[in-house]
Amino acid sequence: MSRVIGLITSTCPAGEMMELTAGRPVGTIPFGGRYRLLDFPLSNMVNSGLRTVGIVTPLRYRSVLDHLRAGKEWRLDRKRGGLFILPGYGQEEKGSRFSLKDLTLNADFFIKDQAEHVIMSCSNLVININFAEIIEFHLTARADVTLIYQVSPDVNQKGEAALFLQVDEDNRISNITAGPEPEHKLFLDMLVIKKRFLWELLQYRQSAPEVDLLDLVRERLSGAQVFGFPFTGYVGRVYSVKSYFQCSMDLLQPNIRQELFMGSNRIHTKIADNPPTRYGTKAQVINSLVASGCKIEGRVENSIIFRNVYVSPGAEIKNSILMQKSWIGKNAYLENTILDKFVRIRDRQRLKGSEDSPVVIAKAAAPGLMGGELA
Amino acid sequence: MPKKEIIAMLLAGGQGSRLGALTKKIAKPAVSFGGKYRIIDFSLSNCVNSEIDTVGVLTQYKPLLLNSYIGIGTAWDLDSAFGGVHILPPFVREDGGTWYKGTANAVYQNIDFINYYDPDYVLIISGDHIYQMDYRLMLDFHKKNNADLTISVIEVPWHEASRFGIMTCAADGRIVKFSEKPPKPDSNLASMGIYIFNWPVLRQALVEDELNPSSEHDFGKNVIPMLLNQGKSLYAYRFQGYWKDVGTVESYYEANMELLREQPELDLFDGPRVFSNSDVLAPHYLGSQAKVVNSLVSNGCIIYGEVVNSILAPGVFVGEKAVIHDSIILPNAAVGKETRLFRAIVMEGVQVVPGCLVKPDLPGKIALIHDSFSPQAAAYHEALA
User: Fold this and answer.
1) Interface contact flag, A287 B288, Cβ < 8 Å
2) Model pLDDT for residues B104-148, shown as the tens digit of each residue
3) pTM for this entry
4) Contact at 8 Å (CB) between B18 and B249?
5) ipTM of the predicted structure?
6) CA distance B21 to B153
């Protein structure tokens, strides 16, 4: 598909997510046992036929480069087009989707390519979507911008900094609002935009770089051809620790897992070459998603276990998310917790959060040096 | 023209006929092992971990899956511009062509390939052994002894020695005698079929062997004895570690089951990484009634039933109330609801229908399920001699 290129931004409309984004941008938050949030928009674009994708990275981009490298796993390590790591202004941009500052900085990326249209996406949506149909609609309608929205928004999914669209019968967008109005649809932070129109917008507001692209689109609603396109599948919006937790637990439902990972369009990610996971003689694991290279000798329930995690005998893990290489000691107890990578939980240690407010342990921490139970 | 110090020729052409149904449709090196691996992963990973970046893979028997599995070698970092992995099937010349007539003939037919890289040394390995080895140590040994040929050997139990090609050595490792399957072995050092040759020595030996009409063109049976008789300098490199030639269904089953021991001799979690060309699948899922104990489970599995002391390859489905004990389920197979399997190997892609019982008909045997079938709640089994 030479007429369309992709752009993924690493900023999140809701800004920081506390511990989860300490030291990494939203796009590289580990998700689903072996993925990072970035894998979703990137795979969606590649699966839709795009072969040129730019990723705007914030200042702390080490994890982005480490994960993507040359883009081979996403078929973007190529001569024609490929993966472009683009500079960005960083996580100072709280609450931005497609900041004009970042877009202007990377004008060359748009100019140099022959493509006539750009698909833009944020990197905090867990979704498996094929853009082919949307691009066709966009071309047929001769749209300047096509905004993708969710058909039946779940009240809980709205969250911070969500935008809502008023969609007319002919799918035109007549209003974009910050608060949920009745009948308004949730904007899914993904759009298709005609390059020429994008260029026009960038020229027009070059002097006000704090502005977001959506602000400009809103200003031009009456004059330009702005349409909406509905998406009816599963959408996991990650904008807070709680929503991250909820979206993770959604993966324990077979239909959601089926839609995200087992359809004809797969989510690609970096390959780890780990051995298969080893369940010990005392392992008791139910209703959980478990990645490769783990050694499980304890009890695990309703949890997401990432790669190379070790669960000692007697340990009990409930409703928790354990990221790569975390280590759980004997007879420890974890409930409603999120452990970042390399966390070490000592023998008999107990950590319990609540469903609304899971306990998050930062990367490489060995919590409890200050004392036992965190309620 | 740049040259290589050493290149590897990996023999992957055999059928492995004693593996029965396991190799009916694919070559032995392509057979799944240890859950997510294929047997050839071990040799290829050894090469890359030993910094050998040029590997010729000699294929012949049903190479389709093997070829597409290897691809251009990306999974093992063997996709380089100069070097990398090359699939070498038999080919035709001006004067016609023949299938590979033996291990030595296969290498003989590819002399031009080796000449292209002009190496000092050629490593000959097989694609159907399971082991982890740093070939650089063997090369150091070869150089230190100024050998023409170094053969890697491993100590085998004395009562098994008569099954192997046995090397009798002097104290310094120099080989003085070679006996193929001797009824009364005087040494228990068995050849592993891993050789490092000086290229000129190998080339000459191949040409001479090719001209010998009574030769079977096999390294072990013909080339090695010939070189020994010619007084060439042959040394035995003693390898210490796990090494398995899974030649029969029984040994294949045992080697897999050994991975489930408390302290397996081949520890996939420790040591140099074994690379493989796996599909990117989601992490595996265990349902609310699942019971998985003492087992290895790969990516993409969905388990609703009971799995004990078993190995599940990628993409395996286990239905509700199914019971799987002491079994090996190969990639993308499915075990239906309430089906019970004991000491079974379910081959790739096989759909075992719900509600049946599968076990070997005699103790000590293994039930090998190689076709999708549909008996209704009847005991179905196929035992192997």
Assistant:
1) yes
2) 999 999 999 999 999 999 999 999 899 999 999 999 999 999 999
3) 0.91
4) yes
5) 0.90
6) 30
